[in-house]
UniProtKB/TrEMBL annotation:
<dbReference type="InterPro" id="IPR011330">
    <property type="entry name" value="Glyco_hydro/deAcase_b/a-brl"/>
</dbReference>
<dbReference type="Pfam" id="PF10096">
    <property type="entry name" value="DUF2334"/>
</dbReference>
<dbReference type="InterPro" id="IPR018763">
    <property type="entry name" value="DUF2334"/>
</dbReference>
<protein>
    <submittedName>
        <fullName>Polysaccharide deacetylase family protein</fullName>
    </submittedName>
</protein>
Length: 257
């Protein structure tokens, strides 16, 4: 039985996402979508969309990219807002926030240090723009690099997103209810050391995370530049598609079919 037709009685779920979707990464996103489809089925994944990637690739006014987004959504891809520009424009230099900004991302923790009102404005504007383009509600919000500051966490509940995600969980912003726990499996391509460490972690995860009821796999456009990462992604998807039902994030919500 193909992975996208997994028996409905399976309790375990595999949730897959493509990050950093924008006009700047369109070719790589197509490559990733093709690779994912071979393992989990056509459009059986989520896309995380950036409205203006690094202030260099605005979606507003890009009719061709609007059409692509609608086509993906119409085919069944879940759509999330993924920040606004994906760049940390208010970097911290001290404390835990400074450590996260320096070591957990390459200057891309956009929502780690934003004050509440700025975070709320970016979330609300991005949500309105994408929902207008798609003609349907977004599935939720996922911060760039999975990093949230206090202002962003407060804004999430106020803007009205159904779902949010960080490295270790998926939750409902309105109530704080945690819907899934466990580390997301992802890869890094920006240095040889990070490539090695992500290959090591994904290999470990293929064994260690097997018992988890929900396994999340996230891929990035940069992964397409490293053949070893693409091979690891394929092996990871094959492993979990054999034991977990390929699912949508929305299936985690209470009362979902």
């Amino acid at each position: 039985m193909p992975a996208n037709a997994a028996p409905p009685h399976r309790a375990k779920r595999l949730i897959v996402s493509i990050h950093d979707v924008s006009p700047r990464s369109e070719r790589q996103v197509d490559q990733l979508a093709e690779a994912l489809s071979r393992r989990v089925g056509d459009a059986r994944f989520a896309m995380l969309v950036i409205p203006d990637h690094w202030r260099e690739a605005p979606i507003a006014g890009n009719a061709a990219f609007h059409s692509r987004l609608r086509g993906w959504a119409d085919a069944g891809v879940e759509m999330f807002l993924h920040g606004w520009c994906h760049r940390d424009e208010t970097p911290a230099t001290e404390g835990l926030a400074g450590f996260k900004g320096k070591h957990m991302t390459a200057g891309e923790g956009e929502f780690l240090n934003l004050p509440y009102q700025t975070a709320r404005d970016r979330m609300a504007e991005g949500k309105a723009m994408l929902e207008d383009i798609l003609g349907r509600p977004l599935a939720g919000f996922i911060a760039p690099a999975w990093l949230y500051g206090e202002g962003a966490l407060k804004a999430l509940a106020d803007v009205g997103f159904d779902l949010a995600e960080d490295h270790m969980k998926v939750w409902r912003p309105a109530t704080g209810e945690v819907l899934a726990r466990g580390p997301v499996i992802t890869w890094a391509s920006r240095s040889k050391a990070r490539i090695r460490s992500s290959l090591f972690f994904s290999a470990l995860a293929r064994t260690a995370l097997g018992p988890m009821p929900t396994v999340r796999v996230a891929v990035h456009p940069g992964d397409t530049t490293v053949p070893a990462l693409l091979e690891s992604i394929d092996r990871t998807l094959a492993r979990f598609a054999a034991s977990h039902a390929v699912s949508r994030y929305a299936a985690l919500l209470p009362g979902a079919a």
